[in-house]
Structures are given as C-alpha cells and as structure tokens.
Amino acid sequence: MSDASLEPVADIAVIGLAVMGQNLILNMNDHGFKVVAFNRTVSKVDDFIAHEAADTQIIGVHTIEEMIARLKRPRRVMLMVKAGGAVDATIEQLLPHLEEGDIIIDGGNSLFTDTIRRVQEAESKGLLYVGAGVSGGEEGARHGPSIMPGGSPAAWEHVKDMFQTIAAKAPDGSPCCEWVGGGGAGHYVKMVHNGIEYGDMQLIGETYQLMRSYLGMSADEMSHVFSEWNKGELDSFLIQITAEILSYKDEDGSPLVDHILDAAGQKGTGKWTVMNAAELGQPVTLISEALFARCISALKDERLAAAKLLRGPETRFDGDRQAFIRNLGQALYVSKLVSYAQGYMLMRAAAAEYGWKLNYGGIAQMWSGGCIIRSRFLENIRTAYADNPELTNLLLTPFFTNIIMENQQAWRVVVAAAVQAGIAMPAHSTALAFYDAYRSDQLPANLLQAQRDYFGAHTYERTDKARGEFYHTNWTGHGGQASSSSYNV
C-alpha cells in the first residue's frame, strides 16, 4: 500500500477494478505512467495489488482522500464504473476533494446525453470533464484499446500523451485515439461503434445460420471458411474470433458453440443507437434489426412452442455448395459496408444536431485497431473522407459503389435463398432493402402522404411545384379546406 507521506507522485487515478479497469491500469503502468488504484470495495484493491499488480509501480489506496493526495496537478481521475447512477454517485464523492482545473474522465459506456450534462456541471465548478469511449474488451484494455475522447476541449492537452501512448496503433503506426469533439461526442461515437458492432455480429450470425441449417456444414467446416475469409477483404476482428469460436471444442470433443443457449444478451448501447436514430430521423435499419433479433432470441420459450405449431418450407440445398459459400462471403461483405454507411449517416446527423465537428476519417482511424469492429476496409473509409470531408454518404464513394456493383448479384441470391428456405436473415435483408430504397428515385411515399392528408389533413408537396410549398385536398368533399399541420421530413 501507499507510504505515509502521501507524496503527489501519480499521473492518474483509476476508480473501478473490474476487468477493464484493472487492465487499463496495467497498460498504463507498462508504458511508464504511475497509477493510483481505488475501488469502493477496498478488499479488491488489496487483492489487485497483491496479485495482478504485484511488482509494479501501481499504488493502491483505501480512501478517496488518499487517492487525491497521491495525484500530481492537474489531478486526473478516470472512472471505470458501471454507466448510470454509479457514475454520478462517484462524481459526487470526488467533487469536495477536487480543485479548479482538475480532470474527471469517464471511461465507461455512458449515454452521451448524460455526458453532455456532466461536462456542463463539471465546467460550472471550474473542473474539466472527458467522456472517453473505450473499445477492445479486456484484451484491448490490457494491450491497446481504441479510445474515443470528447468533452472539455481544454482537457485534451492533459490526457493526450497518456491516451495516445496506451492506445492501439493503426496499420500505419498512428494511435487509435484522437480528440472527437465537445460535450458527449466521444461517448456518442462509442455508442455508434457499438451499434455497428451489433450489426456486424448479427450479419455473421445469420451467415453461420445459413451455413449450418441450409448447407448442413459442420462447425469445423464453417471455421475453415471464416478463417479463409479473414485472409481477404473480410479481414476483421469479429471474423477472426468467429473462426476460433467455431473450432473450439467442449470437454467431450464436440463444438462448444453447439452447447450455448441461443438467447442473446445486451447492455443498452445498441438500443441507445436505435432510439437516437429515430429521434434524428435516420434510417439506421441494419442496427435496428440486429437489436430486435436479439430481442427475438430472448423469447426462447415462446420460440420453442411456436416451432411446434408454425411450419415453414422444407427446403434442402442441392446446388454447388462452394459457389454458394462464395456468394455468402460476398453478401456478408456488402451488408457490412451498408452497416458502416448507416453508422456514418447517423454520426453526420448528430454532428449537425449537437453542434459537433466530427473528424470522420479520424474516427475510421480510431476504429482500425484495438476495437471490436476493426476491419480492413476502414482504411478505405478514412481515405474517402480525406478525399471529400463533406461526403454525404459512403455508398456514393467509388470504393463502396464498385464493391456493391461487383457483389450485389451474390447478395440477392443469398437473401432470396434464405427466404425460400425459411431462414431468417433480417440484417442481410434490411441491408439490401435499404440499398434498393436509397438508390430509388421514386418511392411509394407519395401515396403515403396522400393517405395522411386524406385522414388527417397533414398536407403534401407537389412534384410540379417548388419544395417547401404545402397543399391540402378535400378528398371526400366533406372534410373542409383547413389543414392540420405540415409534415416534417
């Protein structure tokens, strides 16, 4: 434990000694930073210092007062506690001990609107606040995560060196950490990262389901395919670990994945992404379907009952399996591109709504190492925004357009086969539907607007008049000419 003099020798304090907190502390220590470790349950501090942190420079403390006393100014305190009320409660405990210019850093998965509020409250007291999204799981925290900091701009110079030193490195050697923006921008970008993660995982799961239930492939055969895919354009962390999971054997030698209950959990970030997308009017359909697919999976008992009553087609694959597997890889690739394109659409809308100036190419770089959604094509996204910082949609860039043109027939073959076989592929299906809707110069919304005007006098615009002029029709001759309100688009 600490010595009696309580000299201010530490660079940062970390509160919260769950796996992520412990591994970040060890990462910081490895890179020469002196860290103070504190946990509400102080026995965890003693255990950490005696075991994982043995023979390091890490300082364990039992009280907040002792923790603050060990910190150099400006004091930097990083919270690695559960999002929500625990963050606010910890901040309240800290406030009496902090001075003007001290910095509070929230490294958890906090809701970005909470971070906006906390930045304002901290700054009103003369403090600085950083909401830092941290991705990479326990392995990333230990050896180099992706870090997405935002909040009080004046705090960046005081955390930049440490964060960029401990962060993962992109393929070009640059740190996977850069200032995102003010307010809750850092946690917002992390939220979108997690939403894309939901989409990626669902797309991979649907691919696995089609391989298993339609092609009749074994876990080892599927593992081999994912391993091969990971050597090419689908190279990514999630494809890599899928190959490893499918090859992992239980104690009896059978695939462990076959013994895992098909009921998915979630911690909220995917739901937040979908809710915010609805608020901003952004069609983030793939993440939405991924979220609801988890909800359907959780209805395990209902699904077991329904499976006995609700019958689907009895379809068996009798074609060229290797050709279909190639189509599957192409469909997975294109659907993943749509997922990222939708995520960037959402960030663009949020930047306009909340007054952020997001560096979209920089975000791609931050996601290119350490984080869960790191993929080979993130470099292509970074390049696209370097070429055109005002880009409206990634689907309009040459890279995305060419990939879709080359692969869309395979995409359609796979989605059609799944429909014919009665195998749900909601993420793939909605990715294709979004693409077809986005490229359409005529959608049936004209009829929808007529319906809204018919029953609610909500008005409509005309194709032969200027945009922004609204009209109402008395469709039945009995409704009158007064309209209720103009619609919002």
Beta-strand proportion:
5-15%
Cross-sheet strand order for the largest sheet: 3-2-1-4-5-6-7-8
Main sheet specs: 8 strands, mixed
**Proportion in helices:** 40-55%
Average pLDDT rating: 94
Class by helix and strand content? alpha/beta
Element order, helices and strands? EHEHEHEHEHEHEHEHHHHHHHHHHHH
**Number of strand elements:** 8
CA-based shape: globular
Give the number of helices: 19
C-alpha termini separation: 60 Å
What value does the Rg take, in angstroms? Answer: 26 Å
**Poorly predicted segments:** none
Overview of this protein structure:
The protein is an alpha/beta fold. The protein contains 19 helices and eight strands. Strands 3-2-1-4-5-6-7-8 form an eight-stranded mixed β-sheet, with helices on both faces. Helix 1 (19-30) packs parallel to helix 6. The longest helix has 34 residues, at 321-354. The model has no long low-confidence stretch (mean pLDDT 94).
Map the helices and strands.
Elements: E1 12-15, H1 19-30, E2 35-38, H2 42-50, E3 59-60, H3 64-69, E4 76-79, H4 85-94, E5 103-106, H5 112-124, E6 128-135, H6 137-143, E7 146-151, H7 156-166, E8 181-182, H8 185-213, H9 219-229, H10 237-247, H11 269-279, H12 285-298, H13 300-309, H14 321-354, H15 360-366, H16 378-387, H17 398-421, H18 426-438, H19 445-456
Parallel strand pairs: 1-2, 1-4, 2-3, 4-5, 5-6, 7-8
Antiparallel strand pairs: 6-7
Helix pairs in contact: 1-6, 8-11, 8-12, 8-14, 9-10, 11-12, 12-18, 14-17, 14-18, 15-16
